[in-house]
Amino acid sequence: MVAPSLAVDWVAVTVVGLTVVSAVGVALFHRRRLFALILLSAVGVGVSLLFAAFSAPDLVLTQLAVEVVSIVLLLLVLYLLPRSTPSERRPGMHVLRMGLAVTLGVAAAVLVHGMLVNPVESIAQYYVDNAVPGGGGHNVVNVILVDFRGFDTLGEITVLAVAAVGIGTLLHKFAPVLPTEDQFPRAADAHPALLRLQARVLLPLALAFSAYVMLRGHQLPGGGFVAGLITGGALVLQYMANGAEWSQRRLGGAHHRLVAAGVALATLTGVASWGFGHPFLTSTHGHWVVPVLGHVELASAMAFDLGVYTTVVGVTLQILTTLGEVTVPGSLSRHHDGWVQEGGA
C-alpha cells in the first residue's frame, strides 16, 4: 500500500530550489568567506520558510533566532581568520569528495522518499492527545521538548554547555593571528553613538520580550531555548555596538558558572520528581489563583525551561567573552606565526 500523493506546492518547491542553490553556492564559493556566509544565512532563511509553509511556528521562531545569533557571531569571527583559504593541491580529492557527497545525497533522498510513500504507524497522535492531560500545555512541541522527551533536551543542553566551556577554556590562554589590516571595509566610526544608543534602548525591551516568549511557551509558540537566543541576540548587539573592551568590563568572566547553573537547574527539576515517587523528569501541572493575575495554570516543566534559557544565555556570554579576550588590544600577546601563549611563544 502506497500513501496517496499530495498536490504540488510550487511555493515550497521554489523555496527548496533556492535553498539548494544557496547550499551549493556555499560549497563553491567557500574561499570567499563573506559571500559564502551570506549564502549560508540564505539556507537558514529558506529552511525557516519551509517550516512556516508546513505550519510549524515554534520551529520558525527557533530557526530564525539561531540564524541571527550564529551568523552575527560568525561575522565577528571572520576578522580572526586568515585572508584566504589554501588551495587544494590534490585535484583527485575533489572528485572523491564530490562522488561521496552525491552518493550520500541520493541515499538520503531515496530514504526520505521511501518513508513518505509508505504509510507507517506514527506516535504523533499520542503526543497530540496527551499534551494537555499529560503535560498541561497546548503547545505540543514545547510539551514534547520539556516533558515527554525532556531527557533528550537535557542531553542537548549538556553537550552545548560542555562544548562552550571546553572551547572557552582552551582559548583562554592563547591568542590567534590577528590581521594587520581589515579584510572588509568598515565605517570610520566603528561604534557610532546612534548604534550604541539603540542597543541600550533595545536591551531591556529584548529582555522583556524574551521573558514573555519563555512564559508563554507551554501554551503558545515560544519556550526557554528561543527566549535564550533572543536574550543572546541582544547581548551580541551590545558587543557590536560598544566594542570588545567595553563588553569585557561589563560582561565580566566566570560565565561557565551560569552555564553550569542552567544545566543544574534542569537536572534538579528532574531529580525533584524522585521525591514524589515518580521517574526522573516526570512533570506535574495544576491550576492556581494568583493575586492580580487571577486564574493561572502552571507546570513544573517551566523550571526545566528556565534551566534551558539560563544555559543558552550562559553559552552566548561565554562566546562573547572568549571573542573579547582575543580581540581587546593589549589583552593578549600577538605573534605572526600562529597561536602563542601570553608572555611567550
Short description:
Helices cover 66% and strands 5% of the residues. Strand 2 (285-290) and strand 3 form a beta hairpin. It has 2 domains: 8-86, no CATH class; 135-345, no CATH class.
What does this 3D model show about the protein?
- The chain has 345 residues and is mainly alpha-helical.
- It is built from 12 helices and 4 strands.
- Helices cover 66% and strands 5% of the residues.
- The strands form 2 sheets. Strands 1-4 form a two-stranded antiparallel ribbon.
- Strand 2 and strand 3 form a beta hairpin.
- It is globular.
Question: Which helices and strands occur, and which strands form pairs?
Answer:
Elements: H1 10-28, H2 33-53, H3 57-78, H4 91-117, H5 124-135, H6 140-148, H7 150-171, E1 174-175, H8 193-216, H9 224-242, H10 244-251, H11 255-272, E2 285-290, E3 294-299, H12 301-327, E4 340-341
Antiparallel strand pairs: 1-4, 2-3
Radius of gyration from the alpha-carbon trace, in angstroms: 23 Å
Helix/strand/pairing class, anyone? mainly alpha
Q: Secondary-structure element sequence?
A: HHHHHHHEHHHHEEHE
Q: How are the strands ordered across the major sheet?
A: 1-4
- What is the number of strand segments? 4
Q: Give the count of structural domains.
A: 2
Largest sheet: 2 strands, antiparallel
Provide the residue-averaged pLDDT. 82
Morphology: globular
Q: Percent range for helical residues? A: 55-70%
Our estimate of the beta-strand percent is under 5%
Contiguous runs where pLDDT drops below 50 for at least 5 residues: 329-345
Question: Termini distance?
Answer: 68 Å
Report the total helices. Answer: 12
